[in-house]
Amino acid sequence: MYRQGKPLREILASETIKTEESVAAAFSIPLELLADLLDAQFEIVDHTAWLLGQQHLNGRNDTETAVFSAVHKNVFLFHSAITLTKSGMYGAAGTLLRPIFESLHIAKYCVLSKNDRAFNRWIAGDYVHLTNDVFNHVKNSTLPETRTFWKALNQLSHATVYAQQIFASYEEIKTEIGSCLSLIQVLSVLNHHLLTRHYLTSQVIRYTRIYGDHASFQSARDRASKNVATIRSSLTKDAKRLVREYVSAWEIRS
């Protein structure tokens, strides 16, 4: 990057253009899978948003706010992380993955827990400690892969030797770009579980089928499920264990 005799903005702009072209060619399949999955997930929420806040119809309780917050805000985080990664800015993209992961686990825990402590802290705007307030309260599993993944995301988010990036040239960062896209894929699968198991209640599905656009709603669900199945089949063994830990039936300590 240095000793080129050009301003930083010109150097990075030039590298970004070249990187976007290379990424589009080298990672076309995972990028298309991610795009279609996230589009389908958005459509599912779009078709059911009219039931938000109507707990007598949607079958949710007060923790609906935590679930919808995760599903809705993650739209922006996923889009931003993918856009940055495609341009070669995988270091900045990595810092966005931690809040996605946090929101997914906090939301699922709040729905399942009969102890309102974590939800009350979240709704008050206080920090919810993922290990002490969530992981340690899942009775039927120690969530080993989840804790390992969480540690890795912290290393990407904090100022560790693993965080951010040093190079901008595609040839020097293509491995890291692929790794970042893989992490985003894993999180998109977890996001699918929260959406389809804890946001989409049986009542929401029923009323959407009766009063909504049933064909489009079902089409979005089918597309999302198909893309998730494809992504899961390509995951590493560690990533598959992480997914299994999240989608399992958590038994919460009282």
Question: What does this entry look like structurally?
Answer:
This protein has 254 residues and is an all-alpha fold. The protein is built from 13 helices and no strands. Helix 2 packs antiparallel against helix 12 and helix 4 packs antiparallel against helix 10. The longest helix has 30 residues.
Write the layout of secondary structure elements.
Elements: H1 8-26, H2 28-48, H3 55-58, H4 64-86, H5 90-94, H6 97-112, H7 117-123, H8 130-134, H9 144-157, H10 170-199, H11 202-211, H12 214-234, H13 237-247
Distance between the termini: 55 Å
Helix/strand-derived category reads: mainly alpha
Biggest beta-sheet profile: none
The Rg value, from CA coordinates, equals 19 Å
Which segments are poorly predicted (pLDDT under 50) over 5 or more consecutive residues? none
How many strand segments?
Answer: 0
Percentage of residues in helical conformation:
over 70%
Return the average pLDDT rounded to an integer: 95
Strand content: under 5%
The shape is: globular
SSE sequence, one letter per element: HHHHHHHHHHHHH
State the helix count: 13
